[in-house]
Write a structure and sequence with these properties.
Elements (H helix, E strand, L loop, with lengths): L2 H5 L9 H7 L1 H20 L4 E9 L2 E4 L4 E4 L3 H9 L2 H9 L6 H7 L3 E6 L4 E8 L2 H60 L5 H35 L5 E11 L4 H31 L5
Antiparallel strand pairs: 1-5, 1-6, 2-3, 4-5
Helix pairs in contact: 3-9, 5-7, 6-7, 7-8
Length: about 290
């Protein structure tokens, strides 16, 4: 063995890398293939997930019995409703015949509900293998919730209409009484009886009380209808549905990662193999 080869330092200079790969190319290639394969194949099998997100404003209805507006459903009631296993299927049925079987399987898993306390807002998220499926699933769920809240709103408005009808019936009765009192007032005024003045005063007092009651009930009916109109709002989505990718990585990124790991492993393996070969080729000191 040449003396200069035995005396060269253990380290490898940059200009010797090419020669090293030429000498140990089988080990470098083998390490590259093994490590790159173990890095790319398992990561490629990880299914990526997409999450569609939306913020929902729960609608308001005017409670005729309480005399104040309230949420169509409390946030806790909305959570309990959406956690029911039957809710996604019902929402899917209401979405129409255009929904396919693939969409049905998307609706069942991966739905998250996050209420925002004291705001009437609730955040809903749905996960699916693709962005379109996640967006479609969330759209169906939101539309289903809006449909249910629409029915509850109609029920609350029926109570308002029933109370308004009661006011209208009472007003009609009071106005009829007022008409009769007016006739009695006119009759008493035109009569020349001695007690006519006292009768007129009594009828006038009754007319005033009746007119005051008519004004009060008419005002209550006006406020009831006005509040029902302006203090009610439907359940609606704020902004648009946004979708983000969670879990998994793009195929291109996985391939690049595998190649980098394979090159690093090939380089290390070639260095170690060349180092061991050179150590074995050196004569033992004596």
């Amino acid at each position: 063995m040449p003396a200069n080869a035995a005396a060269r330092p253990e380290g490898i200079k940059p200009n010797e890398f090419l020669q090293l790969f030429v000498r140990q190319w089988r080990w470098a290639v083998a390490a590259f293939v093994i490590v790159a394969g173990f890095a790319i194949v398992p990561l490629s099998r990880i299914n990526s997930q997409w999450e569609a997100q939306a913020t929902i404003h729960i609608g308001l209805v005017y409670d005729a019995l309480a005399g104040s507006p309230r949420l169509v459903e409390s946030l806790q009631e909305v959570q309990e409703r959406m956690r029911l296993k039957s809710f996604p299927q019902e929402a899917l049925k209401q979405s129409g015949p255009g929904s396919d079987a693939a969409s049905k399987s998307v609706l069942l898993p991966g739905v998250r509900i996050d209420p925002v306390p004291s705001t009437g807002l609730i955040r809903i998220a749905a996960r699916a293998p693709t962005a379109d499926e996640a967006t479609h699933a969330l759209t169906v769920i939101v539309n289903g919730l809006k449909s249910v809240h629409g029915e509850l709103t109609q029920a609350a408005r029926y109570e308002v209409e029933l109370l308004a009808q009661q006011y209208a019936t009472e007003l009609a009765s009071l106005r009829e009484v007022q008409s009769n009192l007016l006739k009695a007032f006119s009759s008493a005024s035109n009569s020349g009886a001695d007690d006519g003045s006292s009768t007129v005063a009594s009828v006038a007092s009754a007319m005033e009380r009746n007119a005051r009651e008519i004004r009060e009930i008419d005002h209550q009916r006006f406020l009831l209808l006005r509040r029902d109109k302006y203090q009610s709002s439907p359940t609606e989505m704020i902004g648009r549905i946004s979708s983000v990718r969670i879990g998994g990585a793009s195929r291109g990124l996985i391939i690049v990662f595998g190649i980098v790991m394979g090159l690093a492993a090939g380089l290390v393996c070639a260095l170690l193999r060349d180092y061991i070969a050179r150590r074995r080729s050196q004569p033992l000191s004596g």
